[in-house]
Design goal:
There is one protein chain. By secondary structure, this protein is of the alpha+beta class. Helix content is 62%, strand content 9%. The strands form three sheets. Strands 10-9-8-11-7-12 form a six-stranded antiparallel sheet, with helices on both faces. A five-stranded antiparallel sheet has the order 2-3-1-5-4, with helices on both faces. A two-stranded parallel ribbon has the order 6-13.
């Protein structure tokens, strides 16, 4: 099949290049609206109790948890002075009149309730609720910030809350994306010139990267017309688009140059390249896509969005590498080596750094493997104390205006008014008694209900005009103001305590804390299914390729070891806060629940890339010589440099991504860079040769009945042929 594809690409090269150019232009134009089509939320389970509470509040009462908080600092420093009362009342009226604001209240409109003013009575807050999805809330919040924020004779007005936070996150991501590209592209180009040794060859992966990224943008734009897609998936799209394009192009271009050095014509070299390296790229892309597709089992569209983005960019990158790139190579021919800068001789077979490493490890497989495994487990130990959370305003840099408002609320106020959450009550019962009971719970600052406001079991304000909003239609609702961070262990405990209060009502608890509890439950419930999909599909794919049951199991175990060390390092840094000053982030004592899952799926797929490249060459040598030790050493020698080069280039794109100002994007980029580098070096250089040496001939064992399955359905095209003489094509050296 791939040989026929190679002939087609050669004979229709101009048509392929024209169609590729048209596709890039069309994707750039049509996909340019992708940023406006994507959403900033996606962290909630649509079927969870917290989601039901939010929908009931909006649909039945036209109310909800405050998502805009206005902080007013009067010029005279006294929130209860006549001038401040007048200014605060006017501010509340103006906030309520903002288009899109469903309801608004403030310290002054609620009867000077103490928790709504700062500890020194020099600041007070107003809050508002905007009904609608995250995209609508962001737009309204952006307009409210523009209309209200500033300093007047009456005092200083600042605007925060989750609406402005999501708005700033979306805008920051767009800026970070440009910054990451400005870092990754020039650094990558320099590395490509060093690896390929010439300017023309080094520029080809960037062409494929452009095709992949534009194609992925178009795919995300089209998918966003059908379902919700998270804005955060853009970062993965660009990082993986450029990274995989470089990864795949490295193998394709290197193979093409090798075939030219063997004396083949340009046309024959392209056909052979598609037949060999193209087949490997297609298979490797399939393994990455399968790993990412496991994210589709989760109900949070934030996670599903990374499956959409990841699978799209993998498919486009693979197709561009197997079709468009060979057509370009057929066109430029021998000019691929033009403007060559570096020329180095490849080491003789059976020598070189990677061969010596493999032989050293295989002479002491038990001792070296034991030490490496012990180190990996020690590095992974911090993950045993992981505490999961969801992103809040602290994911933004301290310079963000909405973050500054939240920091002042934490520091200067006794309660978190902007984090108040709604509790919907259906059925019959005594609302006053229930509200009073809830107000007595630990970490509850105040409860507002139709019967009045309660603090520590005492009614401090009776029913009035401001409490009428809690009644409407069937049932009622009340607002619970926490005294702790909702996205924390204490916040989760508060949600569980509220849900556990005995009552005759049917209670639906909403808010960020409830969303965290429900999201974690949804994620952990589906986690075994996602893990099973990845493990089984990986096992099947590797078995069909190699006909062994030992090799797939070894690959899965080694990947888990590698990722455990990465996850431990991420907990040590981002949860516990080591290096927060250097990396410029705020440690919250939690790790974003979704990020390790994303990292696992992406890193696992990329690890399979390198596993296939290495094992293919080892199997070829073993089939040729029957010598297990020699075949492992030769396999590592002939793939070590190219895998290391691919991993280094991919790590650069992820490290550029880690320059983001958004904490969990920074975590994602840094974690993936560490995972890729560790897998391509430590795992491949030590544990793979050690395990292959210890297993011996059992590496290629399979039960008789599975051997029959392999003989009938396995991939029998000579995958290992693509590694012949590859020691001279690794990293493009002649």
């Amino acid at each position: 099949m791939f040989r026929r594809l190679g002939h087609l690409v050669v004979h229709r090269r101009r048509l392929v290049l024209v169609l590729t150019g048209v596709f890039v232009v069309f994707a750039a134009v049509a996909g340019s609206g992708v940023f406006n089509a994507l959403k900033g939320g996606g962290f909630e389970d649509p079927s969870a109790e917290s989601t039901r509470a939010r929908h009931l509040l909006e649909q039945r009462f036209h109310q909800g948890d405050p998502n805009i908080v206005v902080l007013f600092t009067p010029a005279d420093g006294r929130v209860d002075s006549a001038a401040s009362v007048a200014a605060g009342t006017a501010l509340t009226t103006k906030l309520a009149a903002e288009p899109g604001v469903t309801q608004a209240a403030s310290y002054w409109s609620l009867g000077s309730v103490a928790p709504l003013r700062s500890n020194h009575a020099d600041k007070a807050i107003a809050f508002a609720f905007v009904q609608g999805d995250t995209d609508h809330v962001k737009k309204v919040a952006h307009r409210v910030v523009a209309d209200l924020r500033g300093t007047t004779a009456a005092g200083k007005i600042e605007v925060g809350g989750m609406g402005p936070v999501y708005d700033e996150m979306s805008r920051t991501i767009q800026d970070d994306l440009s910054k990451a590209e400005s870092i990754a592209v020039p650094v990558t180009l320099v590395l490509l010139v060093f690896i390929f040794g010439g300017l023309i060859a080094a520029s080809l992966p960037l062409v494929v990267g452009l095709v992949a990224i534009m194609g992925a943008f178009l795919s995300l734009f089209l998918i966003a017309q059908i379902t919700d897609v998270s804005i955060f998936s853009i970062n993965l799209t660009t990082a993986m688009g450029l990274g995989l394009a470089i990864d795949y192009s490295l193998f394709v271009v290197s193979r093409f140059r090798e075939e030219l050095r063997k004396g083949k014509s340009v046309e024959d070299a392209v056909v052979r390249t598609v037949e060999t390296a193209g087949r490997t790229v297609a298979f490797s892309g399939l393994t990455v896509a399968v790993s990412l597709s496991a994210l589709l089992v989760f109900p949070l569209y934030f996670l599903r969005s990374f499956a959409y983005a990841g699978v799209a960019v993998v498919i486009v990158a693979a197709v561009a590498s197997v079709v468009s790139l060979p057509a370009l190579l057929a066109t430029i021919g021998h000019r691929v080596d033009k403007f060559r800068i570096l020329k180095r001789e490849a080491p003789e077979a059976g020598t070189g750094f990677w061969h010596r490493i493999a032989m050293f490890v295989m002479r002491r497989p038990v001792g070296i493997a034991g030490v490496v495994i012990l180190v990996l487990l020690l590095l992974g130990a911090p993950f045993l104390s992981v505490h999961f959370g969801t992103p809040d305003d602290r994911a933004l840099p301290t310079s963000a205006s909405s973050r500054q408002v939240s920091d002042q609320l934490r520091r200067d106020f006794t309660s978190n008014e902007g984090d108040a959450f709604g509790v919907v009550l259906d059925g019959t019962g005594d609302i006053g008694t229930y509200a009073q009971t809830v107000s007595k719970l630990p970490n509850v600052a105040r409860v507002d209900a139709v019967t009045g406001s309660y603090i520590h079991g005492v009614k401090v304000v009776g029913p009035g005009a401001s409490s009428a909003r809690f009644q409407g239609g069937p049932g009622s609702w009340m607002s619970v103001v926490p005294s702790v961070e909702p996205v924390s262990t204490a916040g989760e405990r508060l949600v569980k305590d509220v849900r556990a209060v005995p009552t005759t009502f049917r209670v639906s608890v909403g808010g960020q804390g409830a969303q965290l509890v429900d999201s974690k439950r949804a994620i952990f419930h589906r986690l075994p299914l996602a893990g099973g999909i990845i493990a089984i599909s990986t096992f099947v794919l590797l078995f069909l390729l190699f006909g062994s049951v030992v090799v797939p199991i070894k690959a899965i175990v080694l990947n888990l070891l590698s990722l455990s060390a990465t996850f431990g390092a991420m907990v040590w840094v981002f949860q516990q806060g080591h290096g927060h000053g250097l990396l410029n982030f705020t440690a919250t004592g939690t790790l974003d629940t979704t990020t390790p899952i994303l990292m696992f799926c992406v890193a696992f797929g990329l690890s399979m890339d390198y596993e296939v490249f290495l094992l293919s060459r080892i199997k070829e040598e073993h089939d040729r010589t029957g010598d297990n030790t020699a075949s492992v050493a030769m396999g590592l020698e002939r793939t070590g440099r190219i895998v290391t080069a691919a991993a280094a280039l991919l790590a650069v794109t992820f490290l550029a991504m880690s320059t983001s100002s958004i904490t969990f994007i920074k975590l994602f980029g840094l974690g993936l860079a560490l995972a890729v580098v560790m897998d391509a070096t430590v795992i491949r250089a030590t544990l793979v040769p050690a395990f292959m040496r210890l297993a011996g001939e059992a590496n290629w064992w399979a039960p008789r009945w599975l051997r029959k399955v392999y003989e009938r359905f396995g991939i029998h095209e000579s995958v290992e042929e693509e590694w012949v003489d590859e020691e001279r094509e690794l990293v493009g050296v002649s």
